[in-house]
Amino acid sequence: MEAFISRKRRRLSPEVTPPSRRTTEDDEAESTDFKLAVLASLCPDWPQDVLLESLLACDGSVEQAANALLVSASAGPPRKRPAISGHQSSLVSFTRPTHSNGNVQSSLKKVLTQKGKTLHVYAPEDVEAHTPCSIIHNFLSQDVADALLRELLEEAPSFSKETFTLFDRVVESPHSMRFYVDSLAEAQEQKTRYVYNGSSIADVAQTTSEMLKVSTLVKDAVNQEIGRRQQYRNPGGVKLKFQSAEQWQPNASFVNCYDGGKQSVGYHSDQLTYLGPRAVIGSLSLGVAREFRVRRIVPSGDTSTADVQGQIAIHLPHNSLLIMHAEMQEEWKHAVAPAQTIEPHPLAGNKRLNVTYRCYKAYLHPKYTPRCRCKVPAVLRCVQKQAATRGRYMWMCHSGYTPGQTGCSYFEWAALDVDGRPPWAEGYKANANVPAAATNAEP
Ligand SMILES: O=C(O)CCC(=O)C(=O)O
Ligand SMILES: [Fe+2]
User: Fold this and answer.
1) Distance (Å, whole) CA 375 – CA 198
2) 337 SS3 class
3) What is the C-alpha separation between 131 and 122, in angstroms, rounded?
4) Secondary structure class of 323 (helix, strand, coil)
5) 77 CA to middle of ligand 1, Å?
6) ipTM for the whole complex
7) Which of 45, 387, 416, 437 is deepest in the core (most CB within 10 A)?
């Protein structure tokens, strides 16, 4: 088992989190998260901090940690955490000076996100100051939110949990989901042509009428937030290198259902293969309030930022729209933590429904993207930790990151222009995905 966990290309979480749209890291530091995710799926009753303690106490052995927890469970119940229904006023308002230009200083970040600590944020200005996300509370009118929630509650029984084989046991992923696209033609394309880590998705649904109505509201809000945040963060309002210059236009979504506090999703980044670099995602939460955790990926060997490895818990109440901005998938990881207690919602009971609106790029259709030697469309990934190549994008065989699958060692630096477009896209300028020192040279 230990070999399975620690061998470099065999310890990643696609077997734990659904393989379809998530990606995890390519280096050693990731193994703790992977082990934690495995441990959480084996011991779903235990809070993350206890799982981590147990893992550390057992020198990283998931099997020993799981056994230790099962033994101690027979001696008493796991430690309870409080429900996350409380209110916190803005940290920014009373702790951080405001500049004359109205921008807030994020000097607290360092202090509040130390390794091993969790900073809980509730107010939109705190979410914005401490994370690459923004949040809009009470996003929809109550009638629209209720109508969408009712519709999704009717859909939820058709969602499925991914299963994976672990230590000769079949384990279920800790929540259920379904993939939706806006047109029937796209649904057909998705089932037959799109490949997610080596296989296609059999169950692709058409976006429901309420989801579609809300999609236009999400589109406007996300585009407005992208613009506002760019002004706020970057002088002159410049987008990030590789971020698309086009309007954000949602056309697909993963809908997640967390039925009760035990259901969760482990730390991951969303896969970029069809979204492209610097993707933006609009994530609408309905029903039970849950904690969305984020943590920055620290480059290997970077000791100066070692103290910012703490995680930040963003409180996601019913009817809130969280926007994951362009920094998020490349530089941060996110998770929905298990909750020891939850406050039931009048319509949803113990369920949280979450729609992650996404913008699939036509030029990243698998009919255009490179294929590896197994003849399967390659996966687009960004180097997240290795200091020398951090931030560079590559096409590679899906199998390198899918435990248990055999494949080839296909790897190629991706040619992408400053707007994240590949050479076959209309308007492609020049390859900007090159080593920092050789901006004119091909990799
Ligand atoms: O449930 C959420 O808020 C996040 C779900 C998520 O990370 C995903 O769908 O990739
Ligand atoms: Fe995600």
Assistant:
1) 10
2) coil
3) 12
4) strand
5) 28
6) 0.99
7) 416
Place of tokens 């509040």: 112
Residue at token pair 């229904």? 85
pLDDT digits (tens, 9 = 90+) for 274-329: 999 999 999 999 999 999 999 999 887 766 654 456 899 999 999 999 999 999 99
Cα–Cα distance, 356 to 44 (Å, whole number): 24
181: DSSP letter: E
- How many degrees, rounded to 5, is the angle at CA 392 between CA 390 and CA 395? 130
Per the prediction, the chain carries an average pLDDT of: 79
Tokens of 68: 């230790």
Closest CA to 39 of 15, 8, 65, 12: 65
- CB atoms within 5 A of ion ligand 2 belong to 270
Residue nearest to atom 10 of ligand 1 (CA): 270
Nearest to 127 by CA among 325, 267, 266: 325
SS3 at position 362: helix
CA of 185 to the centre of ligand 1 (A): 25
Handedness of CA 371, 372, 377, 379 (dihedral sign): negative
* 194 three-state secondary structure: coil
Percent of the chain clearing pLDDT 70 (strictly above): 69
Q: Is 60 left (phi over 0), alpha (psi -120 to 50) or beta?
A: left
Distance 106 CA to ligand 2 centre (A): 25
* pTM score: 0.77
Phi, psi (rounded to 5 degrees) for 379: -100, 135
From residue 428, alpha-carbon distances to 152, 154, 431 in Å are: 39, 43, 8
Written in H, E and C, the secondary structure of 255-289 is EEEEECCCCCEEEEEECCCCCCCCCCEEEEEEECC
Provide the pLDDT confidence category of residue 423 given band limits of 50, 70 and 90.
Answer: very high
Question: In angstroms, rounded to a whole number, what is the distance separating the alpha carbons of residues 45 and 118?
Answer: 20
- Ligand 1 lining (C-beta closer than 6 Å): 254, 256, 265, 270, 283, 292, 334, 336, 354, 356
341 Cβ neighbours under 8 A, 6+ residues apart: 80, 81, 82, 83, 261
373 CA → ligand 1 middle, Å: 32
